[in-house]
Amino acid sequence: MASSSSRSGAGAGNEESPAMRRLRRLSLHLLQPFDRPAEQLALAACAGARRVEGGAEVSAALAAYLRGRHRATQARVFEFFRDRPDLQTPVEQTTAAHRDLCFRQLRSLVRDAGVRPLSLMAADPAEYFAVMEAAGGVDISLGVKFGVQYSLWGGSILNLGTKKHRDKFFDGIDNLDIPGCFAMTELHHGSNVQALQTTAAFDPVTDEFIINTPNDGAIKWWIGNAAVHGKYATVFARLILPLQGKGGTPADMGIHAFIVPIRDLETHAVLPGIEINDCGHKIGLNGVDNGALRFRSVRIPRDNLLNRFGDVSRDGKYTSSLPTINKRFAATLGELVGGRVGIAYSSVGVLKVAVTIATRYALLRQQFGPPKQPEISVLDYQSHQHKLMPMLASSYAFHFATIYLVDKYSEMKKTNDEDVMADVHVLSSGLKAYITSYTAKSISICRESCGGHGYAAVNRFGALRNDHDIFQTFEGDNTVLLQQVAGDLLKQYQEKFKGGTLSVTWNYLRDSMSTYLSQPNPVTARWEGEDHLRDPNFQLDAFRYRTSRLLHSVAARLQKHSKTLGGFGAWNRCLNHLLTLAESHIESVILAKFIESVKSCPDEKTRKLLKLVCDLYALDRIWKDIGTYRNVDYVAPNKAKVCGCHSHTATSHKGAELDSDSSFSLQAIHKLTDYLSYQVRLVARELVDAFDLPDLIIRAPIGMQSEAYAQYTQHVGF
Ligand SMILES: Cc1cc2nc3c(=O)[nH]c(=O)nc-3n(C[C@H](O)[C@H](O)[C@H](O)COP(=O)(O)OP(=O)(O)OC[C@H]3O[C@@H](n4cnc5c(N)ncnc54)[C@H](O)[C@@H]3O)c2cc1C
After folding, report:
1. 267 labeled binding residue
2. What is the rounded distance in angstroms from the CA atom of residue 286 to the CA atom of residue 148?
3. How big, in percent rounded to 5, are the helix, strand and coil portions of the chain?
4. First-to-last CA distance in the chain?
5. Keywords, A to Z (predicted)?
6. Which atom of ligand 1 is nearest to the CA of 572?
């Protein structure tokens, strides 16, 4: 359907009526190619996509700075798939074909391109994550299949097993001889892993564990690689020791991980006692074969217990270096953070693709314009800048934050330092939750910002949205993960008042909390004008002030409510407050890393450009969360009188109404955010080009750097 605005004369003032103009343009399609006015389409394309002077150099310098240590490895992955059209994902295919293709893509990456992901993970996690992100660029299903095989199945052997397991399985997993699964989730329990019901009872007579699904609620569900390709599964189950509980009853030692063969290595037939069903067609990620598994007293050797944190001896005695079930459980789950790191990192990759397509198209697409003048690019509309430019800035912010996360993860793997471990645990939860939620929302905005052409499957937003959507849920549901961040902040808060030390990421709380708590409103008190709003110290101060105040206030509320509601009830009563706190903290970390990355950029021109993008990120975040700032007294009502600006009312995404008295700071922040969006728009093309994503990864015709319309029309058959 044609847009109603084009019929309603929104471009009034043009001599030719919109209907006539449209008719004239449509009639061009009736001409033979050689009759068409020369380069009609190409000219239209160029008008909006003009480069700023020296734009190519600007992009190149920026790309050089963004390029991670392992860009060359990623480039090799891209080249490999570029040269193998038989391995490229078509726009339409059946579930069976997609699964088959996805497996062939992974196998070829390993066997033909010679990538050894598990070796990379063991030697240099940063390179491993770079390959995983590149694979996800080729097809998100491939990235996830890759993650199931290596982060989850391989990661469980590396991190929860001991030498005997690594010796036996490492090579087979690495070269994909042994595709495997990670079977944690059950029909009745996903997030609450401690409530899993599958059992692994030790049989001292045969020296085996008996894996059993006690009821339908305990059927392992959603298990990647299970429906078609998996040969083994790491199964999470309650370890039961006979006669060792009170009065000779069986003792439940809590959740442990066991290696269970599920298909014959030669014939691929499902093994006796195991029932596998297909979870079926999903709303996305259909290259991944998710299945459900039921175990009917399946016997496995005692050695198949992944025994890094707890072991059972031949005579059935349990030993562990960790004193309690809770500590063992925390250590087991703590070792699985790599999956979350990979998801956060890959989610930024998806965001970059969506933003690149939407931005390039917004530069190319022209609708309406001043009377008797050419139409303008839709990115010249303030509303469009408002939709896309903060998103572009966020892609940059997340890029630096996830690079930092990957570096921290690598450091943790190298040092096994407990503080770094705690830091990575919370950071990976927080960044995974925050970034994947942001990306999921942004893909829909990108689709809408491309109008009707954003709805064509070939232009990718449908697949990006559907494939990425589950990133918010697997590897830990985002709402649950944010609570872990909030819980950790509260623990740190209590430590602070006990005089203890704070772990690395939260150091700012130690420095800032005392100031913020003794001085109710230091940020607004030091407010001076635009220069001040663009001062990174001010911006970081504002973010940290908000976090400190939220932490202080939620701690007081929890204390108050726990007297009447108990710990669980009080937590639930303050849940939204806790989630806001967690997001606020993660935003502080993201901004801090962005500011650091701007400062350490050696090239002055590039640094200036990044500073502009960073300012937009910071001020847009403050503006979007102005309700919370208002609630924590960040915006002082009396400031309105100083400025004399027009009064302004806004509603933040948290739903708080702002009163007109606070218009001084509000107006300044709002206006500056719009201005910065405009400034970023002027270099938008350079900014997306600097992501350095090849056409193979962008794929959408409307997101191509040149001849976008021509590629699009060709796809349809013209
Ligand atoms: C495509 C796909 C692939 C998957 N692959 C695997 C795999 O390979 N291996 C595997 O083991 N699992 C896998 N999973 C399962 C996945 O990890 C779980 O779905 C995930 O952990 C969430 O658990 P759940 O589905 O039980 O959601 P639930 O925990 O039931 O959550 C449902 C809703 O309740 C909310 N909620 C839950 N608890 C709380 C709380 N404490 N506070 C506030 N809100 C709460 C959540 O936010 C969510 O909105 C996969 C799932 C999918 C869809």
Report:
1. no
2. 14
3. 60, 10, 30
4. 20
5. FAD, Fatty acid metabolism, Flavoprotein, Lipid metabolism, Oxidoreductase, Peroxisome, Transit peptide
6. 42
Mean pLDDT, rounded, of the chain: 87
Q: Where are the domains of the chain?
A: 57-175, 180-335, 339-523+531-637+665-698
- CATH fold of 180-335, please? Butyryl-CoA Dehydrogenase, subunit A; domain 2 (2.40.110)
Residue 601 Cβ < 6 Å to ligand 1: no
Domain spanning 339-523+531-637+665-698 has what CATH number? Answer: 1.20.140.10
Ligand 1 pocket, residue 180 CB under 6 Å: no
d(CA 279, CA 290): 6
The Å distance, Cα 186 to ligand 1 centre, comes to 10
Cα 64 to middle of ligand 1, angstroms: 38
Distance CA 45, CA 73 (A): 33
- Name the pTM for this structure: 0.90
Q: Which helix (H) or strand (E) holds 584?
A: helix 575-599
Average pLDDT over residues 134-146: 98
Q: What residue type is assigned to position 476 of the chain?
A: G
Is 474 near ligand 1, meaning CB less than 6 Å away? yes
475 assigned to active site: yes
Lowest model confidence (mean pLDDT) among 21-30, 305-314, 316-325, 336-345: 21-30
Instruction: Report whether 245 belongs to an annotated binding site.
Output: no
Closest CA to 696 of 283, 24, 85: 85
| Ligand 1 atom closest to the CA of 290, numbered from 1 | 3
> What is the distance between the alpha carbons of residues 306 and 161, in angstroms, rounded to a whole number?
4
| Numbers of helices and strands, H then E, in the chain | 29, 11
* 298 DSSP β-pair partners: 211
Catalytic residue among 127, 133, 475, 583: 475
Cα gap 463→451, rounded to integer Å: 16
Q: Which residue has the CA at smallest separation from atom 35 of ligand 1? A: 479
Per the CB < 8 A criterion, the answer to whether 259 and 234 are in contact is: yes
pLDDT digits (tens, 9 = 90+) for 71-103: 999 999 999 999 999 999 999 999 999 999 999
Q: Could you list the beta-strand ranges (E) of 82-231.
A: 180-183, 199-203, 208-212, 220-224
Residue nearest to atom 4 of ligand 1 (CA): 222
**Distance of CA 479 from the midpoint of ligand 1 (Å):** 10
The DSSP letter of residue 305 is B
pLDDT at 26 over 80: no
- Is the minimum distance from the CB of 652 to ligand 1 under 6 angstroms? no
Q: Is the CB of 143 under 6 A from ligand 1?
A: no
Confidence of residue 504 (pLDDT cuts 50, 70, 90): low
Using CA positions, which residue lies closest to atom 23 of ligand 1? 190
Q: Which amino acid belongs to residue 254?
A: G
**Ligand 1, closest atom to CA 285?**
1
Place of tokens 């990759």: 349
